[in-house]
Structure formats: C-alpha cells, structure tokens
Amino acid sequence: MIVIKLGGSLEGGAEMALAGAVQEVRRRGWPVVLVHGGGPRISKRLRDAGIELPFVNGLRQTTSEAMPHVVAALAECNRDIAEALARHGVPVAAFADGEVVVAKDVGRHRTGDVAAIRVDPVRAAVASGRVPVIAPFGRDAAGQPYNINADHVASHIARALGATRLVFLTDVPGIYRDFEAGDLLLDTTARELEHLLQAGAFSTGMIPKVNAVLHAVQHGVREVWVVDGRDQEAVRMAALGMSERRAAGTRLAAHTEGVTA
Questions:
Q1: Which reaction does it catalyse (predicted)?
Q2: Exposure string for 85-120, b = 16+ CB within 10 A, e = fewer
Q3: How far is it, in rounded angstroms, from Cα 59 to Cα 131?
Q4: Which end of the chain, N or C, is surrounded by fewer C-beta atoms within 10 Å?
Q5: DSSP states of 178-247
Q6: CA 188, CA 43: separation in Å to the nearest integer?
Q7: Structural domains for the chain
C-alpha cells in the first residue's frame, strides 16, 4: 500500500506527474490511496467571505463560522483531483464528506486532530480496483466537522492502512536543513529531523509536515518521501521507492532508525 499526499499549493501543477506515478504504481500491482490538501482554495473562499483566521505552528485556527467554507473548498478540490485522474484513465473513489476521518476536539475551535481512521470504506474502494481520493477533514461522534491538517491526515491514514510508503508532494524540492542556504536534506533520520525541529529550523508551513513524517515512521511506515510534485521524475522516484536516484527529494527510511514494519 502506498499513500500519496497532494499539497493544495500545487493547484493542478502536479496532474501529469501524479497521474503518471499512480498509473505506474498500479501497473506493478501496488494499491494507492491519495489524500489532498486545499489551503489556497480555503484561503480564497475565506477572503471572499471576509473571514480572517490566524495560523499557529502552521495550523489554520478554524472557527464554526469558517467551517462551511472549508468544507466547500475541500469538496471542490476533491472533485477536481478525481476528475483529473479519471481523465488519465485512473478509476477513483471520492471521499469528500469527512467520512474516513474520525475527528477529535483539541480545544482550537474547529481545528481538530485525528481520533481514528475508518479503514473499511477505503479498503473496499481499493479492493474494487479504485484509487481513494480523500479530503482532509473529519467528523466527530456527533457528526460535527473539523478542519484537520492534510499532512496529519495522510500520516494517520498511512499508519492505519499499514502502508509501506508515504509520499508528500509539495511545492518545494524537499525538506531543507537551511532553506536560505539551499541545504536540502536527501536521506535523513528521525533523530536529525527532531533535532532540527527543536532548533527552530523549519518555517511554520513545514512544521506540521515534518511532524507528520516523524509520526509515520514512528508508527510502522517503512519509508517517507517529500518531493516537488511538479517534478515528474522526482514523483516517480518517490512513488516507486527507487534506491538509485538523483539528488532530489527528502527520504526517511525507517530501517535507518532500527524500526521494522
């Protein structure tokens, strides 16, 4: 099982790379699950509605007033991604109503976290030969929706499904030890990422992604990649887990930490 998280910042720029990688992975007989973000579209809808929300450590502090706009933006993203994959001959199963993620209230209004993942509908879609396309929000036991960081959702889904590989497609070449100096991490370790995180090396938007990478490898995912979703070869390299690769993207392999899956 391979889980791919498509960053909302790519806004269609990764369509060819994503579709090509998904097709090749499926040809090899590996099931694929796709989780997507939607930050830019959410921001636009909120601006149009005159709503301003702060970010804390890279997480949007969502309110009840804002939540309908968040849900609408994510549903729109989900539909567009599903249609794009379908155009390339990839059969999809759209999950756009928060039905996969059980959310929990963490005291940040409607910004929640993952309490559990409902794996049965996802596994059923995979078993039918389709690629699940999952929007990153969830509902609590009462059915109330919560906005959840898409990187966190992808990490929890990869864990729940027992995925071998988790790939983050974003708008930068990977995780940087020092972004201003262009010091890109290629093969890294959990220990190194934890040290850089504590040292404040990452900008706010990268903090939840690094935490999601760490969560995945610490809970059984064997390999996690962060690559530029617009770079077709980098996306293919990550999706296939190529050991022989060019200097692109960041990879953390669990075996380097003494972790088995």
A1: N-acetyl-L-glutamate + ATP = N-acetyl-L-glutamyl 5-phosphate + ADP
A2: beeeebebbbbbebebbbbeeeebbbbbbbbebeee
A3: 27
A4: C
A5: ETTTTEE-SEE-HHHHHHHHHTT-S-TTHHHHHHHHHHHHTTT--EEEEEETT-HHHHHHHHHT-SS--S
A6: 32
A7: 2-257 (3.40.1160.10)
